[in-house]
Amino acid sequence: MCAATLHLNSIFDFSYRQNQPYNQSAFHSHPNYEVYYFHSGKCNFLIGDRIYVLAPGDLILMNGMTLHCPKIDPNVEYVRSTIHFEPKRLQPLLGTQTELPILQPFQEMGNHLLRLSEKARTEVERILEHMHDQNTRHDVVGSFRARLAFVDLLTLIYELCLHPLEHVNAQSTAKEKTVQQVITFLETHYNEDVTLDQVQKHLHVSKFYLSRMFKEVTGVTMFEFVYRRRINQARIEFVLDPSVSVTDVCFRVGFKHLAHFSRVFKELVGVTPVQYKKSLTATTVQ
Fold first, then answer.
1. Please, are residues 111 and 58 in contact by the beta-carbon 8 Å criterion?
2. Does the keyword Transcription regulation apply (predicted)?
3. In this structure, are strands 12-18 and 79-85 parallel, antiparallel, or unpaired?
4. Nearest to 146 by CA among 131, 163, 168, 125
5. Domains in the chain: how many in total?
6. Where are the beta strands (DSSP E) in 116-217?
7. Cα–Cα distance between 117 and 58 in angstroms, integer?
8. Which helix (H) or strand (E) holds 60?
9. Is residue 168 part of a domain?
10. Per residue in 21-53, pLDDT tens?
11. pLDDT tens digits for 58-98?
12. Domain holding 190: CATH number?
């Protein structure tokens, strides 16, 4: 099995049945929407302050700017299909007289998991396969039919969200529920001077046990999670207000020293905060 990543005239990016190994510590975000379909494997998916224990056939709607990361079992092949898209670039295909607000689930539900029925799962997989088959024709007609199939998928998702299937926290173990509580606490206090003692006091669980359990379930330490959450929030702040200063964002997201903020930002994003701000300005100008 191999992955096929397709760039359909910049309207969306489609990775079909991708099965390459995943960087376990790669919390990430992106300024667009995502449709994520889980074919097979064993995966805890962290999105913001939630943990989803996935089952084959699960479909996730995602606001990409929310920090997210799959924690997979490396002993089980991890197969997924993903579609990233920007609503504005999709609009010309939808036209101005769209009868159904098919993007409403992404706009109003934020990050949402659908556990599909067997019938819905079969239909989603059929559409994904059709998108892949059409685009691998490498001609204009195939590319256009792949886009139409994507609109069909969005329409199906809209229909499923009108009558939501029981959207699950999946059957979380006691350990996963405790880690979920930790993530919720960290999500609320990420921009404060969080300590293990505070988390222990809040949850009434040994901090040593919490540390070990958090790493086991998520693949990162609590403080790696906090740093990544802070940097993700900094990116959001820069996107929302390109004129905001690096210093203001540094303190706003919980760092005490600008040099530390800049160093961690570059480690996680690949560029300094100043370079990141410039890249946003350049994109806007274009």
1. no
2. yes
3. antiparallel
4. 131
5. 2
6. none
7. 9
8. strand 58-63
9. no
10. 766 556 777 778 999 999 999 998 988 878 889
11. 999 998 778 888 888 889 999 999 999 988 888 777 765 56
12. 1.10.10.60
